[in-house]
Amino acid sequence: MKQPPPIAFAPTALAHQPAAIKPGELTGCPWHDVKTKLRNVGLRPTRQRMALGWILFAKGDRHVTAEMLYEEATRAKVPVSLATVYNTLHQFTDVGLLRQVAVDGSRAYFDTNNSMHHHFFIEEQNELLDIPASDVVVGKAPVPPEGYEIAQIDVVVRLRRKQP
Ligand SMILES: [Zn+2]
User: I need a surface site. Which of 60, 109, 121, 138 has the fewest CB within 10 A?
Assistant: First the structure.
């Protein structure tokens, strides 16, 4: 049987691509830039989306759970419920502003870096660290069932401290 070609980890392999931000569109002002981001993907910049978007996107690349974001929002005096945080995270994911990282069944992590990359997961700290896409080569991808193609391969490498 002929082997399928290796999977290319090109950004085009991503299922969702957010609308491209045109040069000059971002001003460096986080509030304005969040508004632009939301508008570009067709989401109305409501007060809650703006507040959560600002917390998410103004601090560089990060990985958060709904609970983490809810806690931060509460600390920042943003009046928002955990359910709204969940909904907003999923809306942002659906339009490609965030990428969901499946680490375990009980917790969903959302990644503000939606470019193709992989993750280390430090089990004791429940912390995700980025691995550049080029650092992981999957030698042999499984053959998808008839009628399907592989949209994306996410690699999570679990870490624990070395035993002394
Ligand atoms: Zn990441």
Answer: 60
Query: What is the C-alpha to C-alpha distance for residues 146 and 128, in angstroms, rounded to an integer?
Result: 34
| Domain range annotation of the chain | 24-159
Question: Ligand 1 centre from 29 Cα, in Å?
Answer: 23
Rounded to the nearest angstrom, the distance between the alpha carbon of 2 and the centre of ligand 1 is: 34
**Ligand 1 centroid vs 138 CA: distance in angstroms?**
18
Report the CATH architecture of 24-159. Answer: Orthogonal Bundle (1.10)
How far apart, in whole angstroms, are the C-alpha atoms of residue 96 and residue 90? 10
Distance 51 CA to ligand 1 centre (A): 22
Q: pLDDT band for position 15 (50/70/90)? A: very low
Asked if residue 36 lies in contact with residue 26, where contact means CB atoms within 8 angstroms, the answer is yes
Q: In what order do the strands lie in the sheet with 63-64?
A: 63-64, 107-111, 99-104
pLDDT tens string 94-106: 999 999 998 877 7
